[in-house]
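Run folding on both entries below.
>entry_1
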Amino acid sequence: MSYWHEWLNSNRACEAGRVHEKIATLLEDTRAVTHTNIDRDIDTNDTNDTIKDQDLALAVDTKDKAHLFKIEAGRRFETHHGYILHDAMIGKPWGSLVYSTLGHAYLVVRPGTADLIRHIKRSSQVIFPKDSAYILMRLNVKPGMRVLESGCGSGGLTLALATAVMPSGRVYSQEIREDFIALTRKNMQRVSLDPYVEFINADSTNGFLVDKKVDAVFLDMPAPETCVPQARAVLKDGGFFGSLVPTTNQVQNILRALNATAFGLIDVEEIMTRRYKPVADRLRPQDRMIAHTGFLIFARAIVKPLGPVPHDNTPGPLEPAQLEPAQSTDGAEDAGGVPGALNDDADASALD
């Protein structure tokens, strides 16, 4: 049991009583009550650390059920455990406990990117935060970059990409379905990320409609292998490519397409996460885990050589360096009877 859960259980009765006594006062002057409930001095000029009107907030109850909503003066947060006036939260520091009219406690925190992805309105499966965080790293997504995604779905990855490229970057989201674009646009507007996303309603198999080449491309669609050449056409030389598919036969199809196009440094990976119950005296894995959500395929855009690959002593642009035969000090041949052969425990990374 976490610290704040234990604190709540030990103080629930007295706190609930105090809350009920203050309901009438809250209704008359909630802002005054808000400040009298703060147990420490707060710098009123520090607006970044306190809850403000129009902020997005995450309220978490004692059973870890989270609610995402926007703070709006004059409104109230409704639950089946009573309601909480928004005015009673405005001015409090993030991480404060607030109580409903029925005495139930909620921890109010600023939502993170993972929270926003989990709570977006969806009409299709979204890319989980465990995958989207790794995708951002593998695609080297940074502020100011131009990133193209094909297939926005409900906007889970779009949200993560827009958060990473802001304030000077741009996400181009090309999607064939207008209903997916409409939903993703609403989700971006809800979290104020819509200025960093440009939506393109078009069939990606006919090419990507961007004005100049991009730094990274990610394909999230049923048959990404059909768009690999189109992706390479708009990707900068040396740029980053990624895709996610749920089944192994889809992985095989996209690998064939990548090998037939100007891509190299290809990787296929899978991420699984296991959460633990955060109880120090009874630490153990939770009964459920997020296991397979999809296979991740990554590659880099390369420049294929023009003409035949040279076969002299100088390694060609796509060939590994030739290994010099190992010199035997005792006149005996190396392992396997082949001069210069690598032993089983030798470092063969140069051949990868």
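>entry_2
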Amino acid sequence: MASSENPKHGRPQRRAIGIVRVSRVSRVSGRDGESFASPDEQRQRIEVECERDGLNLLDTRGYETG
């Protein structure tokens, strides 16, 4: 099995799976501000961090709390 190299970092590609937290309480209460990030914002942040760190993002998964 051949490993693909990350052209940006010149080493084997590392992989990641992002976890997105969805809180029913936040949706009901209408919370906002810096401490609250919607699922779409969380996914976007995960994508940016993976790009920065040279990670291949395989998937983002959500789970609900509350």
